[in-house]
Every structure is written in C-alpha cells, then in structure tokens.
Design goal:
Blueprint (H helix, E strand, L loop, with lengths): L2 H12 L2 H28 L1 H19 L12
C-alpha cells in the first residue's frame, strides 16, 4: 500500500462510521468521474475516433448486406 493510501485508510478509520461511509462514497464518485473523463478523452482523440468510425461503418455495411444483424438488447 502506498503512503497516500495508508494515510487515507488511517483517516477513514478515525472517522465515525457514517462519516467514513460518506467519504468512501465520495471517493468512489471521484474515481468514477475520473474514469468517465478518461473515456471521453479517448473517444475525442482523433487517433481513436477514426478507427471507431471505421469500425461502425464496417458493421453498418455488414448489416445492410445481410451478413449481420443489429444487436437486440433483450437477447444479450
């Protein structure tokens, strides 16, 4: 465990349970937000956007030519 993680653990352990739970929930929110921002950045990066657009066009062409079919969320 890193020193920062150890410090965070000590801090959480020193709080009343309801406050510690709130702090953990907020930390999860921040981690999810950082992950979401990372995905948004990657999807906005032209190096990835071109490949993604090509893949979407390929799938669309397969569906139109009868080689594939759209995904049915109820069958996943």
């Amino acid at each position: 465990m890193t020193k920062l993680a150890e410090e965070a653990a000590r801090l959480v352990d020193s709080l009343p349970q309801d406050k510690a739970r709130s702090l953990i929930e907020y930390a999860r929110f921040l981690a999810d937000k950082a992950d979401e921002e990372s995905w948004e950045q990657q999807f906005g990066d032209p190096r990835y956007t071109t490949g993604l657009a090509t893949a979407v066009a390929d799938v669309d062409l397969e569906i139109r030519s009868g080689q594939g079919e759209p995904l049915d969320p109820d069958r996943l």
